[in-house]
# Entry
Amino acid sequence: MSNSRLDRNIVVLGGVGVGKSSVIARFTKGEYSEKYVPTVSGFHSKKITVDKKEYNLSISDTTGQDESSLLDSSHIGSTDVFLIAFSVNNRRSYMIAQVVREKILEQAGVDSVGMILVGNKCDLKDERQVSTKEVQELAAKFGCPYVETSSREGTNVEELFDVATRVANKSRGGSSDEEDETSLLDSTYVGSMDVYVIAFSVNYRRSFEIAQVIRDKILEQTGVDSVGIVLVGNKSDLKDERQVSTKEAQELATKFGCPYVETSAREGINIEELFIRSVCVANKSRGGSGNDVEGDDATDKSMCFIM
Ligand SMILES: Nc1nc2c(ncn2[C@@H]2O[C@H](COP(=O)(O)OP(=O)(O)OP(=O)(O)O)[C@@H](O)[C@H]2O)c(=O)[nH]1
Ligand SMILES: [Mg+2]
# Structure
């Protein structure tokens, strides 16, 4: 582990040509090249802000592996999170990713380490050899996140490193002030709010889990049994990348006794609807019927907090 509290070490592993260097270049420099230059090894760094904290990420790029490659033992031990990449258009690279994971566990001599499965080249829809569902199931078995990226199009690359930082925090035992799930809500928000809009992305299961933790935190910090909440599943346009089903989110909302609205900010789906529902909930929290969304009076202002 590195010395500074906010340094995080990431190693990117996986088969030859799956796009390890491209994902790193997209993230650290915002660049992408179609030209293929095999990597021997490389070291990159970038600062990232996650949950209002700035982390220094050190990212080691590696030479592409196959079934029989040995891992560089210098990586084991000092690494907070392993990104194990494959390309979704190459089934063999998916098998290699699983072998690489075994080798990490074997060399580290533990049952689990911080890792993320990364399915790159998701832009190559017609050439797909590995389905999202299949990898999600494997990731669930491994107990690690799965993130599908395209370094060519920049899809989910920022998100990948957000997730990596969070997993890294967890592998360090997550001192409470560094963990998303355990971070405290800003107390200025609690008490004055009529409605909390708690959002997650339907293509990112961890954000769904975090939404549930946020709700618990709100109840804990407000010290009441129920508050006005609207649960929002955003990015509903990403149909092929879905990790959270509508049914599942609806069931959770029913359990919470709050509405569930599925939105796409990109395509403008249900955005109006979301704010109408929020106003209904806000009215209800103020003791109203919950059906009245009209009001032209200054006292009808609602405080809505989106998290
Ligand atoms: N379509 C598509 N091509 C990609 C993507 N990412 C990388 N590539 C291409 O795949 C090739 C290999 O990319 P690299 O980033 O060099 O792959 P690598 O895993 O670092 O390769 P090694 O270092 O040899 O293991 C290059 O020609 C890239 O342009 C992607 O998201 N989509
Ligand atoms: Mg490379």
